[in-house]
Every structure is written in C-alpha cells, then in structure tokens.
Amino acid sequence: MKVNKQAIAFYFVLLYNFHRVGEHMKIDKKYIVIAVCILIGGVLTATLAFIGPDIITNGTINPNNVVTGNLKLKITDTSITLNNMAPIRSSNYETEAFKKEFTISNAESTLNGCMKLYLNFNSISDTLKSEYLVYKVVSSTGNISEGSFKDIADNKLLIYDSDFIESSKSITYTLYIWLRYVEDPTINLASLLGTSVNAYVSVNGSDTKESTSCTFDSSKKISYVVTFMNTDNKTVLESRKVSSGSTLGNTPNNKIYVNKKDGTGTEYDSSYIVNEDMMLYYLKLNFSADSWDTIVTNVQNGRGEHYVVGDVKEVDLGTYGTHTLRLANTSTPSECSGTGFSQSACGFVLEFEDIITTHKMNDESTNVGGWPASSMYTFVNNDIYNAIPSEIKNAIIDTTVVSGFGPDDTANFTSTDKLYLLAPGEVYSDWKTITINGEPLYDTAKNLTRTLDYYKNLGVTTINSSGAGKKDGTYDSYWWLRTATAITGSYFYDVSNNGDWSNYDANYTGGAAPAFRIG
C-alpha cells in the first residue's frame, strides 16, 4: 500500500473577547468562552483497510488566562506527533487512536464553573459525518464521554457535557479520535477514505455555585457492530448494533460463538460486555481430537451441535476389530417432537461409517414382527453393544425407534433401543416422495422419521445415492436397513454396494452398521 504522508499542525489558541461599552454599562451575567482551536488537515488516502497520512503537530501553546468577571481559567497544551493513522480496533484506542491532551485550570479562589466541550468544523465532507468515525473524551474527574461524528449538526458536535470545575482546581482532558475497524463484509468504509477535516475545539461555560447544577451526561455511546457469521464462515447470519458498555445479548439460536474463523478462540455469551466491533463465528468443536469423556460432557451440556457433522473417530471393538464412528446428526428440529415420531435421527447420532460384520436379519425367510423381533436386533443390541468401549457405552441413551411392518403385521413397531439400524428415509432425503410405477414405496413408517444431517448435507437421494455406500474392509458391500417391506412378507430394505436402495430376503447375510445416540 502506498501512503501519502502529510504533516498536520495541531495547536491550541485561546480566544477571549470582552468588550465594555462606556462606564455606564452594567454586566449582569458572567460567562466564559474558551476556544481551543484544533486544525486537522491533510488528505487521508489508503486502501479499504488502512488510512495512511502522517499527522504531526508541532509547537507548544503558552499558558493563557481567561478572566470573566472574577472567574479565571487557564489552559495548557503540549505538542503531539501521530504517524500512519489507520482504522483501528476500538479496544486499542488508547494506544493507536489520534490523541490530544489539555488541561483547564480555575485560577479563581471563590468561583466554580460548569463547562461543555464542542468540536467545531470549518469544513467537513458529508461522508465523514459517519457513525464509524468516533471520539472519546476522558476527564481526570473519571468521566468518559463518547460518540460519533454522525451527530454533527450545523457543523458543530458536542463532545463533552458537562464538567463542574471548582475554584483553584484543574481538570485534564484526553481527546481520542479514530476510524473504527469493522470487519462486517456488508459494511463498506471506502467512502471515508481520501477525505479531510478542518476543525477546532471550543469550551463554553458559565459560573455556578453547586456541583448539583452541573451534571455530567453519560447517555451518548458508540454503537458497535457485532456480526454473527453462518456456519460456512462466508455469509452473515445476523448483524446487530450494541452500545458500548452494554451486554452482547442472546446469540442467534442461543448458540456459542467465538472470535476465530476456524471456530476456536474466546467464547462469547449473552453477558459479554461489548466495547468494540466484532466478527463472531460459530463454535466448532473437534470430534476427531476430543476424548470421549470430553465429547460426552459437551453433548450433555448442550454443546453437541457445535461438533461438525461428518467428522469421524476410530473405536476399538475388540474381536470385531477397529472401526470408524461418524457423527451423523446433531440437530433436533421441531418435527422430532411430533406424536409417534422416531427419535433415531434426532439429537446427537453416531453411526458406523463402515460395516462391522455381516449377519442375517432373520434365520428364516420372514419379516414378521419387523425390526424388534429380528435376529439382527438381538445381535446388534447384545454382541455389538457389549463390544463398544465402556466410555462410549455408558453414555449411550435409550432411543425410541419406529419401524415399518410387512403384510403379515398390522401396525408400525415402536421399540426402545440402545443400538439400531437406519431406516431408508434416514439415508435418502427424497424417500417420502418417490414412487414406483405411480405407487408410493412400501414403507409404512416413512413419514415418521427424518433424514440424518449427514446424508441431507451430502445431498443423498435415491437418484444421487453414491454417498450412501459403505465398505466391508476394503470392498463396497450391502448393508441392512431396519424397515420391513410392506408388500413382501420376507424382505427388509438394504443399501446396495453402489449406494442404491434395494431389498433382500431376511435370511440373506448382509452388513451390520448400526447407529446410536449419546447424551
């Protein structure tokens, strides 16, 4: 970036005019007019990210005295040098913003005063009358006044209202001015670049007896932008304005957000005090790296949705070898609360990415009794379940599972399972709507479950089905689903070696790749 440097003289001039017309004029009111002139000149030029002048103020203004009636004030000033002014994070204003210090002293031993500070503009472009160009005035009394240039009216801006100054006392002020660094991609600050300001500070006041008649106004605040990004980290989910010193408030959907794009970093909740513009990202926990104890704890504490669907983790099943668990689902949409709705695709669902072993659905060629009465049901919920390490097994929760029935039964089956096979509609997102020769598929429970997040995100359908395939070792192979076909008394649905849906006789030996929920 090329930076054009200019020196900008910044000096204070004490203005005082007091006219007396003849000896017969009577003065009924005492007043103070103290003008501190600040000249901020130069051209600010840069890219969108930076403004690049050198701002240099040379010289020291000698102490000046103002006398109004018996009230005497004294202002001092020191030289300041600023280089490479640029948009900054507001949290760094004390070290990086334009800065000017000055002191006002009351030399009178009996009179008190009440003062207001103004910023007066000889000329200013309309683009700089912006909420993103801001100021802060810090008083040695402990008061802090802040606001933005958007409040300019008639080329004048009240920047401090008000301070009570006792007789024989002094108050020191520090004025900061900066351009806010705002990351929100929907906000364009380009119009603030290449502009200039010509202004001076004036302090107007009057004498007063009591401090109660001179009350500091702390109501003006800088309005910061807090941007919540979508889980893709590319698009904005929500932008909100929060006054400085106020709490963040509830995050979108009450989820956890962090300050790093990779989904890590400092976590922000509703109680966080906002004092700068922020870009916040959806918290992403690391399923592959976290221990099972950590995963279980996060799920039980309501943080399960912050793991990334599709992430995998190996698990040792003893005599069945090492296999891979995949995070298949983290969401619980409203349909999961429907009457008689299967919970098998709701909440934190893990499925085996590969085939653990092969087994028949039934020893006989029948689907009577459906999934709960099958030989596969007993095998999965005993042999495979007992092979799962205790740190996982102890966290597996009971799941209400709804399964379709065949022609020899009369109603869907509802079982309470530790482990279960998937249903076709939990794999193929169009399962509820497809037909064969104009007739709906023969799955009586197809409307009582939903597609798992993993398969939905992958876009798996009965036409685009390759993402449904699983391997037995190194080979693509068939794996069983739990649903009995409604038209044939001996068949269950399965997924073929290329991911297409199919159905086979119950006594066929196919792959077992169950799922379960933890919580």
Word description of this protein:
The protein is mainly β. Helices cover 7% and strands 35% of the residues. The protein is built from five helices and 32 strands. The protein has a six-stranded antiparallel sheet. Strands 14-13-17-15-16 form a five-stranded mixed sheet, with no helix packed on it. It has a four-stranded antiparallel sheet with strand order 1-12-7-10, with no helix packed on it. Strand 24 and strand 25 form a beta hairpin. The longest helix has 13 residues. The chain starts with 30 loop residues before the first strand and ends with a strand.
Report a brief summary of the structure.
The protein has five helices and 32 strands.
Relevant terms:
519 residues; single chain; disordered N terminus; six-stranded antiparallel beta sheet
Number of strands: 32
The global form is elongated
Average pLDDT taken over every residue: 83
Q: Which structural class should the secondary elements be placed in?
A: mainly beta
The biggest sheet, with number of strands, parallel, antiparallel or mixed sense and barrel status, is: 6 strands, antiparallel
Low-confidence stretches: 1-71, 78-84
Radius of gyration: 36 Å
**Major β-sheet strand ordering:** 3-4-6-11-8-9
Distance between the termini: 53 Å
Strand content: 25-35%
Helix residue percentage: under 10%
Number of helix segments? 5
